[in-house]
């Protein structure tokens, strides 16, 4: 799943974990907490799928619906990191598509 989500998903989930428990009550922080909660719930769904052994077969169909939920955390990164992240994610996708051969 890390390959299909890209390298920036880890940074997004780390920021989501920090933002989910913020104490400020303004509208911007409430929005950030909501996005962070959605990203962390996406991670919780992946953990639940692993624990329940749902992911033992047909992995590509099981994990791909969770990827957009995980990538929500990337929106919480600073503007500088998002801009660099977009370049890294696109380059990573092109490299994976070009060099990774699967028999699906």
What would you say about this model in short?
The protein is an all-alpha fold and 104 residues long.
Descriptive account of the structure:
The chain has one domain. It starts with a helix and ends in a 5-residue tail after the last helix. 68% of the residues lie in helices and 0% in strands. By secondary structure, it is mostly helical. The chain is built from six helices and no strands. Helix 2 (9-19) crosses helix 3 (27-51). The radius of gyration is 15 Å and the shape is flat.
Helix-strand blueprint:
Layout: H1 2-5, H2 9-19, H3 27-51, H4 59-63, H5 67-71, H6 79-99
Helix pairs in contact: 2-3
Task: Let me know the largest β-sheet.
Answer: none
Helicity range of the residues?
Answer: 55-70%
Gyration radius, in Å:
15 Å
Query: What's the number of domains?
Result: 1
Mean pLDDT: 82
Order of helical and strand elements: HHHHHH
Q: Which percent band covers the strand fraction?
A: under 5%
Number of beta strands: 0
Termini separation (Å)?
Answer: 15 Å
Give the CA-based shape. flat
Instruction: Return the structural class.
Output: mainly alpha
Oligomerization state = single chain
By DSSP (H or I, 4+ residues per run), the number of helices equals: 6
Low-confidence runs of at least 5 consecutive residues:
none
Transmembrane segments: 6-22, 34-55, 61-77, 84-102
Keywords: Membrane, Transmembrane, Transmembrane helix
